[in-house]
């Protein structure tokens, strides 16, 4: 595949139209889709040399690589949880251009939910790994001049340190936070702050890992259920199924030693315990299983047949 084909987004079926599903910890987890976008490949790969990363994530002429914003829906006993909040549509033409925002077949987070016959009002919880704009952008929508919650009944669970970062005027990652993604939800009384390691709902646990951002939190399903596989939503701890060697740390990360420590720990656990990994930014693979390959890790495709 040439980089230019990749840039046009013509490679295979867009994930927005190919729904995949797994079960873990009593939760049925279904892929949703919001958008493709592109970020600088060097920033996504940190100190990894381009001749290495470009084989895994081909770069376009402007050095950007293709990423997805792919939330997931988790359902158990009638409770509906949206995991991660998409890019959304509150982008002007300039920003759309910079991030190459692309929606094949006009898909959107709300559209992929509608395809499952789920209205925004039916979402009970929204869980976010952190509050960078590409992870929360679809949670607020414009209604005329007003900014209103897209999921008006949902409790929105944000890491406390992420809301603090959004509210810090001088912050090294100021550009990654937008008050308009967060403050309308707080004003509506819909936000709960999370911290540390907690069981948020039965079979759904959160672990605050930091590193990428102050409050970066991963979401596990079935972690404490001996009869179930464990599924892990990695957020930006492991942004794509290619970022699976511990030193493959994004240049965006604010605390590199912490990222290395947490990535070493969780990649090891994922391989040893057979986790099904969920990578929000991987445009091609929604679910993968990590295996040891000598001293390195490899990500195996998890086929539909093995999932059911
Ligand atoms: Zn991200």
Automatic annotation (TrEMBL):
SUPFAM superfamilies (UniProt xref): Metallo-hydrolase/oxidoreductase
Keywords from the UniProt entry: Hydrolase, Metal-binding, Zinc
Residue ranges annotated for the Metallo-beta-lactamase domain, each copy included: 68-281
Cross-referenced InterPro entries: MBL_superfamily_lactonases, Metallo-B-lactamas, RibonucZ/Hydroxyglut_hydro
GO molecular function: hydrolase activity; metal ion binding
EC class name: hydrolase
E.C. no: 3.1.1.-
Keyword hit for rRNA-binding: no
Record bears the keyword Hydrolase: yes
Family indicated by similarity: Belongs to the metallo-beta-lactamase superfamily.
Protein name as it appears in the record: Putative quorum-quenching lactonase YtnP
Organism per entry: Saltatorellus ferox
């Amino acid at each position: 595949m040439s980089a230019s084909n990749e840039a046009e987004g013509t490679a295979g079926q867009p994930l927005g139209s190919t729904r995949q599903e797994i079960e873990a910890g009593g939760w049925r987890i279904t892929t949703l889709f919001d958008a493709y976008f592109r970020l600088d490949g060097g920033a996504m790969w940190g100190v990894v040399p381009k001749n290495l990363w470009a084989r895994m994530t081909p770069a376009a002429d402007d050095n950007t690589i293709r990423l997805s914003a792919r939330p997931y829906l988790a359902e158990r006993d009638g409770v509906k949880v949206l995991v991660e909040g998409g890019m959304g549509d509150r982008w002007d033409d300039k920003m759309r251009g910079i991030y190459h925002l692309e929606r094949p077949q006009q898909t959107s987070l709300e559209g992929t939910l509608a395809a499952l016959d789920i209205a925004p009002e039916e979402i009970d919880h929204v869980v976010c790994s952190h509050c960078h704009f590409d992870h929360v952008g679809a949670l607020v929508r414009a209604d005329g001049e007003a900014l209103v919650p897209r999921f008006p009944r949902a409790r929105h669970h944000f890491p406390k340190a992420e809301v603090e970062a959004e509210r810090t005027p001088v912050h090294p990652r100021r550009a990654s936070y937008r008050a308009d993604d967060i403050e309308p939800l707080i004003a509506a009384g819909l936000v709960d702050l999370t911290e540390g390691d907690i069981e948020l709902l039965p079979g759904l646990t959160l672990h605050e890992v930091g590193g990428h951002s102050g409050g970066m939190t991963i979401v596990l399903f079935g972690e404490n259920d001996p009869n179930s596989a464990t599924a892990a939503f990695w957020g930006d701890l492991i942004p794509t199924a290619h970022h699976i060697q511990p030193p493959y740390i994004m240049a965006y990360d604010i605390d590199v030693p912490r990222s290395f420590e947490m990535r070493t720990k969780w990649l090891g656990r994922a391989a040893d315990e057979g986790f099904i990994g969920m990578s929000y930014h991987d445009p091609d693979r929604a679910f993968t299983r990590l295996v040891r390959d000598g001293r390195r890790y490899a990500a195996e495709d998890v086929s539909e047949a093995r999932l059911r």
